[in-house]
Design a protein that fits this description.
mainly alpha, 4 helices
């Protein structure tokens, strides 16, 4: 069996290896096998074997060459009957009609009345971050008995039960140091 081509070998080297293989007359590593017809059995055995051919469709009305690609003219939008065309209108007049000055924008700002809203200041504490809000099982919207639970949910439930029982005897480590 021939070795695979190396990264440094050129096209000439590959053609030389191919001619050596063909001259040696060795059996190829791949064998072509034609599959038989599953449903018909030997009903189609009188037909000659399949040959490579192409179906060519000839249409009498069409030319041999496709038409040249010519870009289509740009499409223009039709104006509605009540509006004037943009080229008839002066651009400055159009800006004057649609543009709002900054003073017009600023005068339309309406502030919300916050006099009746209670302000809750954070409660000062000695902790750097606020306490974490833990949701109860009732507010999660799904009861524990509604069907199968995931493995993750089962593990979390087992840990919560273990934490509720308290530490076991093996987990309790006596404090040997002096009291503070």
């Amino acid at each position: 069996m021939l070795s695979r081509p190396k990264p440094g070998e050129s096209e000439v080297d590959l053609l030389h290896f191919q001619s050596q293989f063909l001259a040696a007359g060795a059996a190829p590593a791949v064998q072509l096998v034609k599959k038989g017809n599953r449903g018909g059995g030997d009903a189609n055995s009188d037909r000659p074997p399949l040959q490579d051919h192409r179906d060519v469709v000839m249409l009498d009305n069409l030319p041999d060459l496709p038409p040249a690609l010519v870009p289509s003219p740009p499409k223009r939008a039709r104006p509605s009957p009540g509006h004037c065309l943009p080229e008839d209108e002066d651009p400055e007049e159009r800006l004057r009609r649609h543009d709002q000055h900054i003073t017009a924008v600023l005068t339309k700002i309406i502030e919300r009345d916050t006099s009746s809203v209670a302000v809750n200041l954070p409660v000062p504490s000695g902790v750097a971050f606020p306490a974490v809000f833990l949701r109860s099982r009732d507010t999660q919207g799904k009861s524990a008995t509604s069907g199968k639970r995931s493995i993750f949910a089962q593990e979390i439930a087992a840990r919560r039960i273990a934490e509720a029982k308290g530490p076991s005897v093996g987990e309790v480590v006596p404090n040997v140091g002096p009291p503070e």
